[in-house]
Amino acid sequence: MRWITAPVVLAASFVPTAMAQSPIPEPDLGADVRGIFAARCAACHGPDLVKPKGRFGYVLDLHKVANNPEMVVPSRPDESELWTLISRNEMPPSDSPQGPLTASEKERVRAWIAAGAPDARPATTSAPRAGASDTSANHVPAAPLPTTERVLRWLGKLHLLALHFPIALMLAAGAGELISIAKRSRVPAPGVQFCVTLAALAVVPTVIFGWLFAASGNGIGSSQLLFAHRWLGTATGVWVLITALGAERDAYRGLRGWDVRVGLAIGAVLVGLTAHIGGLMEHGSDFFAW
């Protein structure tokens, strides 16, 4: 029996060694994250949308996402706008029909950025891996938004309507003041006073609506432009209010001051620049391409 037992023992001794030496495949973070984005984000930011939200329609193109410095700083999740939005539960928004990201999904996105934001491996790009996010398996129904938040989100949409008034009125006020300068008149023109007063009344809700609109996730694809548009728009609103107060003072005393004329000129430039940045953010730099 020894001549039978010895080979069996010898063969059995090689089994654990062979199993130990078999390579364990490394997790494909790119495929995992792409699966998460496909399940949670593609409905608003997918490549098939005619007008993706915030001009961010390439969420499934991990290479493009990773190479957008406004979104991702590879190996530095804490400096990445994408992770900031996800960690604050701003993206996906609370009213997303796909539901919020789970803690596990958030951690995988963070690990993906920390690993250098790699693309999905070619062999697994089209086939989801085990453990990757699946809409049917991991779907968390979105809780209904409180009435207050729904109202605030709806009000934010009014920004797209209200913004035209302070822009047009400040430009009209500036043009009217140029006519007074050309006539060498220091008497405040009623038309200019009318325009700048209405501009001041319109600019306050326009700025407020703009902040609410951005809080709903609009402009996520151009975070630097969004930052500039937010704060330049807020500063412009303050400038318009100060200019309107000066114009009211001039109307009371019947003499136009040069400080108001400078204020009107700068105000017209500011509203134009703010509108231009907003247009770039919404429509892109190639909107008027010939």
Describe the structure.
The chain has 290 residues and is mainly α. It folds into 2 domains: 29-138, no CATH class; 147-283. The chain is 62% helix and 0% strand. The protein has 13 helices and no strands. It has helices at residues 2-21, 29-40, 42-45, 62-66, 81-87, 103-114, 135-138, 147-157, 159-162, 164-182, 190-215, 223-253, 258-283. Helix 8 (147-157) packs across helix 11 and helix 12 (223-253) packs antiparallel against helix 13. The longest helix is centred in the C-terminal third of the chain and has 31 residues, at 223-253. It is elongated, with a radius of gyration of 29 Å. Mean pLDDT is 81; it is low at 124-140.
Briefly characterize the structure.
With 290 residues, this protein is mainly α. It has helices spanning 2-21, 29-40, 42-45, 62-66, 81-87, 103-114, 135-138, 147-157, 159-162, 164-182, 190-215, 223-253, 258-283. The longest helix is centred in the last third of the chain and has 31 residues, at 223-253.
Major sheet:
none
Count of discrete structural domains: 2
Helix content: 55-70%
Number of strands: 0
Computed CA radius of gyration, to the nearest angstrom: 29 Å
Q: Treating each run of at least 4 consecutive H or I residues as one helix, how many helices?
A: 13
- Cα separation of the termini: 90 Å
Instruction: Using the alpha-carbon principal axes, give the shape.
Output: elongated
Oligomer: single chain
Low-confidence stretches: 124-140
Proportion of residues in β-strands:
under 5%
Mean pLDDT over the residues: 81
What is the element string, with H for helices and E for strands?
HHHHHHHHHHHHH
Secondary structure category: mainly alpha
